[in-house]
Design goal:
heterodimer; A: about 220 residues; Rna Polymerase Sigma Factor, Chain: A; Arc Repressor Mutant, subunit A; B: about 170 residues; two-stranded antiparallel ribbon; 6 helices
């Protein structure tokens, strides 16, 4: 009969016995990960694009998010809602990238948007007008306070409820609702002001931002 | 694609705010955000991500534990870890006990005190008080005519000096 130490040494040296189990486990991990990619890559891309507004940057962010999942695949079983978990990962990645690429001119974003937004059946004049409108809206979104801006952008995704937005941002649902309300009011004010004085877009947005900051301090 | 009944936004392009009043999406710019959010992902995105995951470097392992040690035999791991700790600690103790650096400094040499402000020492010079009288040696008693040679000793026929010295006490 083999002693315990002999058995351990035999097991230690006998890698061929454990290698198939490792391979099976790795294949299972890869299959689970591939299923996640198939199911959520598109949604993650849209979340990333809504912040970065650049197709290649958004795709890089999606890949980075799944690489992070690969590194922490041991915790995959503990996650309750994979969709929200993945959106939270990619959201943090894109916010980090956005902060680092602050110096990129916004005209690049607008040009990229004009390229990817649907323009089928529209005349050239309508396309130009729509692009100008989108540029104005995005300029005002950029002027929103950070907390309100994040909630507003995530609320644009129909598949995300306020509870899920709260989970992604790590806040309460009531905070989501109040921030969304504030963001909408600010946006309406800014856009009305902008439409009245189209040429004075920047000052109007800046004024609204100051008002929002004052309102937040008051609370 | 509204999968979510909880979302307060409806599909008619209008929404109900907290105050109950309707807000037009266009007036808040959310139509633009929704348009962006609904853009389709590029073709082949999933495949590119899968390829990126396939070629990604796996987490490196210094030691691949056998499967038997991974699951049930936690005590084996603990024993192995304890053995490693004992070997390392024993080796460290061996080196420590052989060197014993504190023995050399049991009676540490105290450096000489530097007294003066300018950094000069007194070079172990000691001040001797001048209150003591130095010893004075008394002069030895002189024998009469012992060292006084007669002036005419060099004269011819005179008695030699040695003879004079020896003869003098006897004469006494």
């Amino acid at each position: 009969m083999m002693s315990t130490s002999q058995a351990i040494c035999a097991g230690w040296m006998d890698f061929e016995d454990t290698a198939p189990a490792d391979a099976v486990r790795q294949q299972a991990d890869e299959a689970a990960l591939a299923a996640l990619v198939d199911q959520y890559a598109g949604a993650l891309y849209r979340v990333a694009f809504s912040v970065l507004r650049n197709a290649s940057d958004a795709e890089d962010a999606v890949q980075e998010a799944f690489l992070r999942v690969l590194r922490h695949r041991d915790q995959l079983d503990e996650v309750r809602d994979h969709r929200v978990w993945l959106i939270r990962i990619v959201w943090n990645i894109v916010l980090d990238r956005k902060r680092r690429s602050k110096t990129r001119p916004e005209t690049d974003d607008v040009a990229e948007l004009a390229r990817v937004l649907p323009s089928k059946g529209l005349s050239a004049e309508q396309v130009a007008s729509a692009a100008q409108h989108h540029a104005q809206v995005l300029a005002c979104v950029e002027q929103l306070p950070e907390k309100e801006r994040e909630v507003l952008m995530l609320s644009a995704f129909d598949e995300l409820s306020s509870v899920e937005i709260a989970t992604v941002l790590g806040i309460t649902e009531s905070s989501v609702r109040s921030r969304l309300f504030r963001a909408r009011n600010l946006m309406a004010g800014m856009l009305n002001h902008t439409r009245g004085k189209t040429k004075e877009l920047e000052p109007s947005c800046a004024t609204a931002k100051t008002a929002a900051a004052a309102e937040e301090e008051g609370q | 694609m509204n999968l979510n009944a909880d979302n307060s936004l409806n599909s008619s392009g209008r929404e109900i705010g907290q105050s109950g009043q309707e807000i037009d999406r266009a007036s808040t710019g959310e139509d633009t955000l929704r348009l962006i959010a609904s853009l389709a992902a590029p073709q082949g995105l999933e495949e590119r991500v899968r390829v990126a995951l396939r070629i990604a470097p796996r987490r490196g392992r210094v030691l691949a534990w056998p499967l038997a040690l991974r699951t049930d035999a936690a005590w084996v791991r603990a024993t192995a870890a304890a053995a490693i700790v004992m070997v390392v600690a024993g080796g460290g103790w061996g080196v420590y006990s052989h060197i014993q650096p504190w023995q050399a400094v049991k009676n540490p040499a105290i450096p000489a005190k530097v007294g003066s402000v300018g950094g000069f020492s007194n070079a172990d010079a000691k001040r001797v008080p001048q209150t003591l009288q130095p010893p004075v040696l008394s002069a030895p008693p002189k024998a009469a005519g012992q060292h006084q040679l007669p002036k005419k000793a060099h004269k011819k026929g005179a008695v030699p000096v040695a003879q004079t010295l020896t003869a003098t006490p006897a004469a006494k």
